[in-house]
Amino acid sequence: MIANTKRIRETAKRLLREDIVDAVLGFKQGTVPMICQPVLVTRPEDVDVLYWDSFCGVNLANYLSKRKDRIAVVAKGCDARNIVVHTLENQIKRDQIFIMGVPCKGMVDPRKVRLALKEREPLEVTEDGDKIVVMGEGFETSLSKADLLQDNCAICIHRNPVIYDELMGEPVPEQEGIDRYADERKLEAMSADERSRHFQDLVATCIRCYACRDACPLCYCPTCFVDESRPQWLGKSIDPTDTLTFHLLRAFHCAGRCTDCGACERACPMDIKVRQFTKKLEKDVLELYDYEAGMTEETRPPLDVYQPDDPGDFIE
Amino acid sequence: MKLLKISKKDFSDVLNRLKDSYRLYGPVRKGNIVDFAPIEDVSDIDLSFQNSRLSPKSLFLPQSERMFEYGLDPAGDEAHILKEASKDYSPKAVIGIRPCDAKALELVDANFDTPEFRDPWWVKARETTTLVGLGCTSPCSTCFCTTVGGGPFDDAGLDVLLTEINDAFLARVLTEKGEKLIKAANTFEPAEEELVQKATAIEQEAAGKIVSKVDTSRLAEIDTLALHGADFWEDVQFACINCGICTYLCPTCWCFDIQDETHGRVGCRMRNWDSCMFPLFTLHASGHNPRGQKIQRVRQRFMHKLKYYVDTYKMGVACVGCGRCVQHCPVNIDIRQVCRLMNEYEGKVPKVS
Q1: What is the pTM of this model?
Q2: Mean pLDDT of chain A
Q3: Which of A100, A141, A149, A246 has the fewest beta carbons closer than 10 A?
Q4: What is the CA radius of gyration of chain B?
């Protein structure tokens, strides 16, 4: 982590000094433990605010939409895939971005750390290799990072950035033999009624703050369908039908585009497992079109194009 | 003020007795989240929490609240006539509300209950509710109540304040509503001097545990336009994703949006929480949006809490230091830092060219 941070700072300084980019988009250390804040650095003398650790879970591709400047961006495996999606969807041009790829061993889920601490509050959290060291009032404990990864990171098979201009560390081994769709198979085994109930229960505590949408790099629509007011498409209350409609429509809008970066779930203030919506669609797109979002700049996303032999068996 | 005591083992009996005269609400744990909910079984109450995830403001300003109902049958006599939606305003008691959240209700009263305007539903909910506070013996590291006019055992807005002392609670009975509740509970005994001294020690120790601080001393004197035009907003807003977490979790955010919903031949006019973070919040019918940019919305939130409220109501900042927005902002926008930037601002009013 320290090596990544050093490399990010050095690269950022060089890119800004040599006028290769106008700005560097990266992370700075947060004001509370276990969170880093996206930051834009425009002067070489400011690069020391840049920072990297296992709490850089925010997907920085979310900050790139419609930017006009030449910008360097710190990108994990999933961020890099979302940058590919962004370029395919004309949100930014490949030649205006400089991708500082960071091979990633997974981001740590602060909720899991808190759970492991059983009510004790973490006051300082640091990393030591594969360990997370937590200090609080009257305690210090070392936890295994592998047990604390975000759910999406635990099943990630694309940890190394698929595109980059420079790597900020040595490539990491990809995880093998991962069962990525255990949860989805459970969903598929349910009856339609059970599944409907499952998703209603899943979002029962949703407060419609839209953090899942706003943290998502795919959600760049100038006006989201939930914000359409002339005419209004969706009720504004916390009526279960409206809440579920929001989540379902958002998920379908992400089909074939979602990289399972986990930004939605990470942002949710009510700990809702919102990835369950998008993950099922990710599996469907993989099975129907043999396509994973953001892996290559060469192919248009399957729901973006029509092929005469597109599978249609699911239309009844 | 009466000082009474109750042993913890008798507390469930007290709550059960209160259920005869009050609709009870209290902190209930679901998974990792504690939130205030109606209490059916008093054993559901969990007083071991630090902060509830959502503030209990929803007990007074529900996220979605029916205001009026109307018929839509053109043949009916009362088509399109608004009638106030009936709601239960029988006595309610909130058990275990934190002092910061109770103080927040007083700050919101300044908006909903004024000599000129009284929001009927807020006022009714406030008048019929008795607040039994639970002081904080182990505040969070993000709590800064002591520098925004409160404290872990501040009694502002409360009717009864409980202090947890080993296997008992000391109860400070603060208002007539509190007296009435204690009478209905009918088990409290006078607290002996020794217990009161112990409580005072616990309360002082808790206040000492609040290490996070903000300085709000200059906010009132700084020129509004100068602050509005300050250069730091650009940096403050950069990371913001404009979600509604900060405003929806905040105990003092009171904004709502009125909507009509119809189904068949009946309609309902309701109000729903709204957020100044959302672009739709200020979208005019003309299509113009005075806060069309993220920077304008982020600035609005902080200016409202830390400047406009201060100037308008002369009650300090519209923040009780509960730290929810600090803990749950997905991109670590920290009101304590923004408050410092605002309070230390020395800039002048920008010139209009």
Answers
A1: 0.95
A2: 95
A3: A141
A4: 22
Contact A32 B334 (CB under 8 A): yes
Around Cβ A2, how many Cβ atoms within 10 Å?
Answer: 10
Based on the fold, state whether residues B295 and B201 are members of the same structural domain.
no
Task: Examine the domain organization and report whether B31 and B106 are in the same domain.
Answer: yes
Residues of chain B contacting residue A30, judged by C-beta atoms under 8 Å apart: 332
Both tokens of B296, joined, read 């304008």
Q: Is residue B332 part of a domain?
A: yes
Between chain A and chain B, the number of residue pairs with CB atoms below 8 A apart is 103
What tokens does B270 get?
């309701």
Pairing of strands A166-167, B160-165: unpaired
Q: Is the peptide bond before A231 cis (omega within 30 degrees of 0)?
A: yes
pLDDT band at A207 (very low <50, low <70, confident <90, very high): very high
- B245 CA: distance to closest CA in chain A (Å): 6
ipTM here: 0.95
CB A15 within 8 A of CB A21: yes
Instruction: Indicate the residue type of B347.
Output: G
For B37, the token pair is 């909910």
Whether residue A207 and residue B280 make contact (CB cut-off 8 A), yes or no, is no
Listed in sequence order, the residues at least 6 apart from A205 whose beta carbon sits closer than 8 Å to its beta carbon are A270, A272, B30, B33
Q: Which domain holds residue B196?
A: 2-58+88-209
